[in-house]
Amino acid sequence: MPMNRRTHLASLLALLSAPTISPAQTAPDWAATLAKARGQTVYFNAWAGDAQTNAFIAWAGAELQARHGVQVTHVRLKDTAEAVTRVIAEKAAGRTADGSIDLVWINGPNFLAMKQQGLLHGPVTPLLPNFQLVDTTVKRSNVIDFTTPVDGFAVPWKLAQIVFIYDSARIPNPADVPRSAEALLAWARKHPGRLTHPNPSNFLGATFLKQMLYELAPDLAAMQQPATDETFARTSAPLWAWYAQLRPLLWRGGRQFPDNGSAQRQLLNDGEIDITLSFNPAEAAVSAASGLLPPTVRSFGLRKGSIGNTSFVAIPFNAAHKEGALVLANFLLAPATQARAQDIAQMGSPNVLDLRRLGAADRALFDRLTPSAALPSAADLGPPQLEPHASWMTRVTAEWQRRTANP
Amino acid sequence: MSAALLRAAPALTVAAFGLPIAAGLLGTVLPAFGHMPAIGVDQWGLQAWQALFDHPGFATSLWLTLRIGLLATVLSVLLAVGLAGLLATRPAAARLGAWLAPVLATPHSALAIGLAFLIAPSGWLVRWVSPGLTGWALPPDATTVGHVSGLAVVACLLLKEVPYLVLMILGALNQVAAPAQLAAARALGHSAASAFLKVLLPQVWPQIRLPVFAVLAFSLSVVDVALVLGPGNPPTLAVLALRWFSAPDVQRYPQAAAAALLLLGLVAACLLAWHAADRLLARLGRRWIERGGRGGAVVPASALAAGAGLVLLALTALLLLALGLWSLAGAWRYPDALPSVWTLGNWQQQGASLAGPAANTALVALCATAVALVLTLACLENESAGGVPAKRRAGPTGNTGRTSNTGGQRSLWLLYLPLLVPQVAFLFGAQVLLVRARLDATYLAVVWTHLIFVLPYLYLSLADPWRAFDARYARTGASLGASRWRVFWRIKLPILLKPTLIACAVAFAVSVGQYLPTLFAGSGRIATLTTEAVTLASGADRRVTAVWALLQALLPLAAFVLATALHRWCFAGRRGMA
Fold first, then answer.
1. Average pLDDT, stretch A120-147?
2. How many domains would you assign to chain B?
3. What is the pTM of this model?
4. CA B459-B464-B467 angle, 5° bins
5. How many angstroms away from the CA of A132 is the closest CA of chain B?
6. What's the number of domains chain A is made of?
């Protein structure tokens, strides 16, 4: 069965043709962009729930100021939807230029909403010199976001893949960690109250449910299409049956959930739970290095692999400082930036580049990254699975809310 | 001061906060009934309300909101009366009163963040006794923070509202010759508690009615505390409305507006119900007083309430200390009672990113306070010049027997309006207006929205001292040939400098604590310590959150210290003024 599913996914992938992007022969244009960008202030709207990422953005801002005279202001979001709402409000108020957001960190339903409603400027990727280095063939999520073709309207800047984290001081035998939906349920039976997941109104919580949907659904192909009442009911039935058994065994009896991944990480550090999860494969290593988690934490993946996706940056249609935003997006793709992002001493996010397209000196940057026992091996992590269509996330979240609203 | 300008002051003041509220409410009412062409909703009807009522967990949300609001208010009043009784009747305890102002200055969200760590099952309190006394090698799987009962939210509201009401009661007591009456009642055989409850409290009760209403309205509609300490699914009505207002799906706007309006209705209904209960209680209380008992169950009950009030103060001190420890922690895991690794790194790392928001916070608070001060002083001066006061004079409604400060309750209501109308009910509508006027995300917009909340507090804290000013000083000055302007600067302001500075510090603290107004008017672009701290509190890194929350608490405190120091410095060596 598992093999079947994966080949199914692969064939689906083949069907989705890569968007056509004109070759980036844009050197003179780029010089003009750089010139126009100088002196601009880029309002970068980015989720700010992670201190490492915030520090990375601050560093990028300082670099951009020094190199190109572009100032970056990190507008700290609690939820990316806040930025989408603001652009919609501006459009509603008739502000088609001089908008308040220049660049937004985005993917999934938020990207789909903005792209569908024509709220994005672009295509922009052909304008960026560094986009030539991006891996668009193996790291497919760089060009297909939650089954939505990106079409150059967003620039990838880091990869994410679901990984689970545990404290080896509490679970000494690596063979005991639960690597499937069934194993998770069995583990929760043995250790009631020691497992939880983020609230599904948060993207990581929703992703946990989608991951379990992948684990349990009879038909994965349906999820690459927009969900209908019929496909959703049929595909998600096993998930809800499984969840009904799991929920009472969760932390706080499944009546309360951490707000997001960072809150769940805090619970692991506080000793309230034994397992947490993250979209950053290097989360355990990064957190152990910064004291957020004990040094004994280790990572594991699910046997069948786990969902991976790409974080993008995109420019709203009415951005006031488009050139500055382009310069920032291009800077985020530079090999040195990507290598720094991947270093666990910084953010630990896997790069979006095709390393074969880099020169030897640039490639060497990626060999000098800080090592850590808490980093998962490729085998631990399993193959990345493509996100289902964004409508599945919306439906899974809504259905979960409906089922848990009345305790 | 130009007389014409002075005369315009009351109208200007009312317009400063009345207009945005009215316009904002309109901007909420229209979408709630199906009119919001901007998002393609243009069919009058009740669809938004249907969607609201059909939302899973709606009933739970409603009940939760109601429970938090009523419980927090009832308990606040009980504990505040107990604590005020203690402070008013025991000279030794009176010194405690000095600690109330700093507590009052600490923003709600900072208290919430600290309390969350204190009372969590893996929190500080449990860590002290674990595993030694409790045997809990792992924290117990019990819910405290985010409990569906909303009790954690209630506890946090008490931390702040009890000191507020105590200060209001003590302030009112200043006007009724409390010590003499207390001595007389004691001589007639009343216990201290009984004397306070039966002789003093009924006299000041009318004056704390409005503050209690403000507490009730605030507890029903609080957002930041409920975000940190309240249940997440389903949340309170205010949080639900906020969630929908900021949902990526714009079609949620109408039902968000409906939720906000429902909250407004809920607040209005609760205020009416409270008012009715208050009258009933007053009648029963009168009978109870007339029976003439001298002690009885009152004594232990008062002691209990006072004790609980003291516990609250201690909790506040503890949670601020816990925040301080976290901000210096490298690693701090259960069940360690103290951090295992200490570091200054958290402060160093945050240093650079703290500067901007801290400067924003101070700038906005200073501007809002300055504008509010000018408006308030102009109103009060206009009033003392015989013009129409911002609170129009009506017959005395209280029973304090003093006519010098019996501004009509009616216009006082107007001043309390910003404190009674739930913020979510008009801030969204106001944001649409701001965007339309291209004023969103400007300092002007943020200062103005802060002004709406700063103005009432400033006015209410300044009005009484200003009206109590002995007019003979001014007359003496005038008879010596000083102009009105000169009398104001050389006589009135120096004499009233202390209450003025303290009122400014209160106003500054109010501004620092604003979360929703900053978020909406600033379009998220103007970051303050409060918006950043609440954002971080949703997870992130407790060490980092502690740094932000602590600074958020320290800034208003600094304003109070500065106010006191400034006053002392101005009058160094001038006896009778210090």
1. 93
2. 2
3. 0.81
4. 105
5. 32
6. 2
